[in-house]
Amino acid sequence: MDNQVENAIEIAWNPRSEQSLKAQAFDFLNQLRTDASGREACVALFTRTPKCSEVVRLVSLDVVNNAIQTQQLDTTSLNHIKETLLEYVRRTYATGDQAEVDPASLQNKLTQTLTFLFVSLYNQGWESFIDDILGLTSLRNNGTRDNFNGTVLYLRILGSIHDEIADVIISRSTVETKRNTQLKDAMRVRDVAKVAASWEEILNQWRDQNDGVVEMCLKVIGKWVSWIDISLIFQGVLPILFDLAGRIKPGNGEDKVRDAAIDTFTEIVAKKMKPADKIGLIVYLNLGQVISQLISSPALHDLRTTSSYDTDLAEAVAKLVNNTVFDIVKVLEDTQAPIDTREQAEQLIHSFLPLLLRFFADEYDEICSTVIPSLTDLLTFLRKAKPLPTKFAEMLPPVLNAIIQKMRYDETSSWGAEDEQTDEAEFQELRKRLQVLQKSVAAVDEALYVDILSNVIGNTFQNLDQQGGQMDWRDLDLALHEMYLFGELTIPNGGLYAKSQPSSVAAERLIIMMSKMVESGIANFAHPAIQLQYMEIVVRYCSFFENQSRYIQPVLEQFVVLVHYPHIRVRTRSWYLFQRFVKHLRAHVGNVAETVIQSIGDLLPIKAEVPNETADDDMSSDESDHSADAAFNGQLYLFEAIGCISSTTTTPVEKQILYARSIMEPLFSDIERNLGPAKSGDAQAVQQIHHVIMALGTLAHGFSDWTPGNPSTASHAPKPEVSAEFSRAAEAILIALEALKSSFDVRTAARASFTRLMGVLGIGILPSLPRWIDGLLSQSSSKDEMAMFLRLLDQVVFGFKKEIYDVLDSLLTPLLQRVFAGLAEPITGTDDEVQLAELRREYLTFVQIILNNDLASVLVSASNQGFFESLIASVTTLAQTVTSGTGNLAASRLAFSVITRMADLWGGANIATIGPQPASSSTAPSPAFDGFDRFLIERFHPICWVVLREQTFRPATDAQAKQVLNEIAGLEQMIYLKTGDMFIQHLQQEFFPAMGVNGSDFIKSMTTSTDRKGLAGYLQGFLKDSRA
After folding, report:
1. If we measure between CA atoms, which residue out of 170, 241, 173, 229 comes closest to residue 203?
2. DSSP 8-state code for residue 937
3. Does residue 457 sit in helix, strand or coil?
4. Which H or E element spans position 413?
5. Distances (CA, A) of 1025 to 423, 729, 907, 987, 1019
């Protein structure tokens, strides 16, 4: 058997083995896991002399581990494995012969096996486990821990035992938790004191001989201390810990033992205790003094500004500080803690704050981040302490000053360098965390926050006046960044101004800062970060300029310079910010369009580039900012900005037309020049036309963002002369669209421009609507494009409902023909399925918009009567399609809603009432056109029951199906309201008898449920009973 197992393992793990043989080997080994003789063979293979290959021994132990862990073995089998392995480890590890020791991977697997045996047998037969393993650590069995091999294995096993029974991070079952608790209790009684004594002996034996053993021992102590009596380490281990934590290596180099000792202190402090005990522990350990000495050590003090700075040590000490402060704050928050304990905690927090701020201010952001959690906890405590005692208020200035200084770029950073993009991103992420801390300080003491920030920013502007271009850009960037954040204090008061006066003290200070910033000439400081920050601030606080309009002109002048900035990141961002600035202040900028157009005209010529399909898709975000598409998108903001400036109220209409024409004429020429090549398939020419169409639409949007049909913006409607000028743009786009409607990019650009032109053309867009539809819903259009265009038409119908009837009447049938063709296209994949669901939704919404905006008659007009039956068939088909499929239930709900609306509009006056005493008038139904009453009963009513009889329709368990059921109930009640007794008689005499169902309960619920949910509830019960 041994040979069979050995051969199978060798074949399975040999890369040169035949696949068929490998498969047989793996099958054999899988069967082995449940075979007792196979397990015995595996134990023998692992312990055999001479030794098998490493892979055979590793797999053999894995089979044994699996058997122990899955509890396949009885006590006899477990004891046999225990005796065999114990004899093996004594033979291998107790002699001190390094040649016999297993490699690290096998030691790990052996450790795991012995740990599983410990869990199974420590309380049931192997009570001497610790004694047996501890015995390996001594060569002469005289109590000295001088056997290196045995000591290492002993420490490995101790670490593994903790991981298996005491690691709180691992989620465990109730049974496992109970078992582990029993094991820990037994160990505390039987062996923990012995283990703690062994740690002292091992540390004393190896501290000057082998750092690896000492580090392992310290890590084990750090693990076990969370669940053993801490007093066991105070006498012997603690003095050694202090020595190791404070030791200095020659040359102040890296010292893993020292770092491990500090980590052990951190774990000791993290041990769960009562508040008084925790404070007592911190005082007893004299941690403040220990940490202060570590901070003063050469590794953290003398070498701090050098490349030899020991960041691992700094991070270890920072973690200790963080955990200690966390526990102190926890005691301060505990209102049930004894008064003397709280007083001690207050003294400790004052002594630890400078230590915390030392690491918070560290040049390395990883070290700073280590203490942010405890600083956050401290500020949260201070925020809740109302009123804030003076002794705590004194802590805020140094904290806030440290946060502000940490916001500053360090001396080694160089903004915008290609090779520092990752560092830049990480620093900006740190700034976000620091901003949260600043907000916490402001929440504790806003007046202090306002004063300190005002001084920092004010002093920086004063230094700029004195030093000019010689000033460090990092100081200016810090002031501007803080200024950008400062305005958030004004948000709760509704902005900077209230009735033309500053809304708060913070707003008053920010107004002063804004004035000083604009006057300082900081926009001319020769560093891209400063100019970018400047633009961000003037845009963020645009409301300042509404009240201080004298500053608009100089800022505009600075903008037209900055939009030409050589640094691409600043330049493209400036185009967006320029648009934001002028759009917000269009009512205040005055007649400056001519100057602006002349100043930035050189940036307007469009130079399209065909996307490189072979380019690496895995492009960083910053690189994509430099792409041709990103540059063009930025260029569009310039067109919109020109539109905003050219259409201000102070600009005469003839001037507005002149400015629009001056921008559009070159674009028209561009289309004319590229149309021929584009029709011949020139990709660059097609891309150029796409860009020009987008530019025309964006310019129009700048001139007017009026939304037709919105009463609140009715006064924003463009002047007729401006609309007439932009009708030329619409015509140019339509000519390009008609010539290139097979191009997806051209259709996309035209669709985007259509919605923007609508705001400037107004009702003037309606006569050309058929041409837009013909171009945008071409044979090449996808279902997705159709859905998007229907969404646009919803806006048109809603915006021009009084004027659109005639146009809609003429285009409805051809439009719906295109849509039905799209709905009928076969589905070839998941994307198609999603697009079809979207098209169904938009189609039904479009019909609903027509019905809800007094345009229902267009559906049955002379022009569209021939298509009415197809329309009804499509809607009813969608209503009754409730089988599984993307969007089917959503479409069904919408379709039933449309049908109910048709019934309401065309069913005539209500001739029945719904209530406890339902009544049906003797008056005959009076539908809008002959026969529609029978149509309601014979066409609309049956589809409700088609859905109800569908076995997959389960409203009890599906929320969307329940919504459909509500719509069905609403439709049935609407049919009853419009047809009264005619419907009741049909149900009683024809419909339910044909189904073989007694429908009296349905009729009762339908006629008495004043809320359709009542009928829906009945139907849900009916379905449950009928399917039982």
Report:
1. 241
2. I
3. helix
4. none
5. 66, 64, 33, 20, 10
What is residue 305's three-state secondary structure? coil
CB-based contacts of 683: which residues, under 8 Å, 6+ apart? 610
CA distance 123 to 78: 13
Backbone φ and ψ of 883, nearest 5°? -70, 170
Question: Side-chain half-sphere of 390: how many Cα atoms within 13 Å?
Answer: 0
What length is written for the chain?
1028
481-500 exposure pattern, b = at least 16 Cβ within 10 A, e = fewer:
bbbbbbbebbeeeebbbeee
3-state secondary structure of 389: coil
CB-CB contact of 552 with 545 (8 Å): yes
Q: Is 920 helix (H, G, I), strand (E, B) or coil?
A: strand
Tokens of 1007: 């006629």
β partners of residue 497: 502
pLDDT value at residue 972: 95
How many C-beta atoms lie closer than 10 Å to residue 869's C-beta? Answer: 9
Distance CA 511, CA 527 (A): 24
CA distances from 479 to 94, 474, 1005 (A): 67, 9, 71
Cα–Cα distances (Å) from 112 to 76, 108, 182, 645, 995, in that order, read 20, 6, 20, 75, 69
Instruction: Return all residues near 934 (Cβ < 8 A) that are at least 6 apart.
Output: none
Percent of residues in the chain assigned helix, strand, coil, to nearest 5: 75, 0, 25
Q: Which helix (DSSP H) or strand (DSSP E) does residue 913 occupy?
A: strand 912-913
Distance CA 486, CA 987 (A): 71
HSE toward the beta carbon, residue 978, CA cutoff 13 A: 27
Q: Give the three-state DSSP class for 804.
A: coil
Residue 920 pairs with which residues in a beta bridge?
Answer: 912
What is the residue-wise DSSP string for 709-774?
Answer: T-GGGGGGPPPHHHHHHHHHHHHHHHHHHHHSTT-HHHHHHHHHHHHHHHHHHGGGGGGGHHHHHH
Confirm if 984 and 1003 have CB atoms less than 8 A apart.
yes
Q: Rounded to whole angstroms, how far apart are CA atoms 148 and 495?
A: 71
- Let me know: does 443 contact 369? Beta carbons within 8 Å: no
**How far, in Å, CA of 743 to CA of 751, rounded?**
12
DSSP 573: H
* Beta-bridge mates of residue 197: none
Residue 25 makes CB contacts below 8 A (sequence gap 6+) with 8, 9, 11, 12, 17
Measured distance CA(348)–CA(326) in Å, rounded: 12
Q: How far apart are CA 563 and CA 69, in angstroms?
A: 69
Q: Answer yes or no: are the C-beta atoms of 160 and 111 closer than 8 Å.
A: yes
DSSP single-letter state for residue 522: G
CB 1009 within 8 A of CB 1015: yes
Find tokens 């450790």 and name the residue: 111
Scanning the structure block, which residue is given the tokens 């002109």? 553
Cβ–Cβ < 8 Å for 215, 154 = no
Q: Rounded to whole angstroms, how far apart are CA atoms 258 and 215?
A: 8
Block residue for tokens 């090549």: 677
* CA–CA gap between residue 646 and residue 261 (Å, rounded): 71
Cross-strand partners of 913: 919
Q: What is the dihedral of CA 656, 728, 604, 713, to 10 degrees?
A: 50
Please answer whether residues 608 and 596 qualify as being in contact, where contact means their C-beta atoms are separated by less than 8 angstroms: no
Render pLDDT for 778-803 as a digit per residue (tens, 0 to 9).
877 888 999 999 998 998 898 888 88
Residues of the chain with pLDDT under 50: 615-624
Nearest to 847 by CA among 877, 874, 814, 807: 874
Instruction: Give CA–CA dist 837/831, Å, rounded.
Output: 10
C-alpha distances (whole Å) from 57 to each of 44, 71, 94, 109 are 9, 21, 20, 10
Q: Which residues of 896-910 are buried (b: 16+ CB within 10 A; e: fewer)?
A: bbbbbbbbbebbbeb
In the chain, DSSP finds a helix count (H) and a strand count (E) of 49, 4
- CA separation for the pair 1019, 1021 (Å, rounded): 5
